[in-house]
Amino acid sequence: MSRSLRPLFATAVIFAIAYALAVLQFPGMFSTRVLGNFLTDNAFLGIAAVGMTFVILSGGIDLSVGAVIGFTGVLVAVLISWAGLHPLAAFAVALLVSAAFGAAMGLSIHFLQVPSFIVTLAGMFLARGGASVITQDSVPINHDFYTWISSLIIRLPGGGRLSFIGLLMIGIFIVGALLAHRTKFGSYVYALGGNAVSASLMGVPVARTTVAIYMLSSVLAAVAGIVFSLYTSAGYPLAAVGVELDAISAVVIGGTLLTGGYGFVLGTFVGVMLLGLVQTYIIFDGTLSSWWTKIVIGVLLFLFIVLQRLIFAASSSGDRAPEKA
Amino acid sequence: MIRRVLRGLANPQLLALVGVLLINWALFPGFFRITWQDGRLFGSLIDVLNRGAPVAILAVGMAGVIATKGVDLSVGAVMAVSGAVAATLVVAGYPAPVAVASALAVGLACGLWNGFLVAVLDIQPIVATLVLMVAGRGIAQLITQGFIVTFNDPVLVFIGTGSFLGLPMAAVIALVLMVLVTLLYRRTAIGLFVEAVGVNRAAASLSGIRSRMLLMMVYGLSGLCAAVAGIIVAGDIRGADANNAGLWLELDAILAVVIGGTSLLGGRFSVPLAVMGAFIIQAMNTGILVSGFRPEFNLIVKAGMIFLILLIQSPLASRLAPVRLRPVGEAVPK
Alpha helix locations (H) across B187-296? Predict the structure, then answer.
């Protein structure tokens, strides 16, 4: 067991070292205020990354996440501000729409037998285009319910604030971890990612599981979209462009193998926090420009992929080990 | 020979292109009007060629990559990097040929880096090229220091907006590249090797194909093509925009290759059909614009098109339709 936990451990250690180094340089970073903001600022990314973890564990990929976040934001904003619906009703509509959307993608992937990558690409175009057709502009949301949710915060000693959306992300991570590691559905997902053919021979309901995985990813992306609309109090069709890449990066950095079948939901949490740390560090430093974020994330991504290769080349003797690394 | 040419013409891609153009014509009667002005051709059709050129060039490189069962997500970012290199060097006072050569070299290096990750470190292509897709725009911004570097260098501007024999320079470059790369693949055995690696890399390696070299080559070519497209886009707007140059074009390029009948599962591929796919996409874009629809419908139409192609290529359709509907790259039996 300890052997299979190694990548998760490696990620956690790297996060701890990186955070310690950052605190050594800027003692102000070690405060509940910064930690609380970590959670709030990355809530939507974290929630989307939980769904992405399941998709990647099953050996697929979901490129439509960012577009679904944008679409949900617009849909919710339009339903509340233009149609006068109560936010909770609007949330329900958004979740239903996204569930149907994810189910359609899962059905296409399974029954057309095409790579998930191209189906979710079409899904991305569809969701982004749908959002832009509804409106081109940012639609503001002014509703008492939104003000009320934003006022739900737990004050921590030291001036920190745990917001509702930050706590929601943590809750979803816990539920996601239980779902992945403690339920039948979770073991189906791992089996599918390990080897789809043998999984189906062993009696895993491949069609149902595939559809459920993409539904889960789309629904969580819609939750992320709702959280994003709570965070910005608006819906904008071009919101969250490229979040799918951040989510994939967080999953990979969190130690989940991109070929599927191996990984941890909680690793993704560490991955999201590491991405947040990079951004916070760059803001604290002040002299570094924002583009360093992208470069550092790219470098981290590369390091973790190589690390995975090394660990798995070392543990599987039958496989041809890479000659250079 | 004549029969081969005729058979080549009767493919679904050409029919689709003609169909899209005819729909455009029905929606906008002036679509086929081409005028000669200031020593160059003008008209919607020429516009399709001009605007479609960057994606067509990307598709030239991408076709080989997808044929090896890979994918190159980094081409959009590489476009931004090479555009930034060319613009920065020109602004710094270097002559244009040096700037262009450096930009091409940087693109090639990016492609070889991807190839190294895929071929030597055995990382899946989506992930390997994701690294550069994420980091590439950061690198481009690092080069331009976050500014949009504008320039007035006549050579670069000519590459982006000039015309050759009345045709837009960008389209001419795309067609020349297409012919050169097609000759490279089809007049040598390289194309066959690429397909062999795509169908089964282990078997190809065992039968003596140097699959590592080959993978490095196709990814290098893809990077080089991305650099060419990046220079064209930079020349077109007379500036290097690290944030927006080539944004999402990798997806259009992949779509173009898929429309061109190459299966994402590797195997048979065709560079000219991929280029035709790029022009089909652009014809749709232009059609939506000239017929007065809002450009946002573009994305929805594209999504519908992907779905249609997947449906046609799926095993389901081949079971239902007895006639040979499928284009060149039919899915390789697993």
Answer: 190-199, 201-206, 211-237, 249-259, 271-290
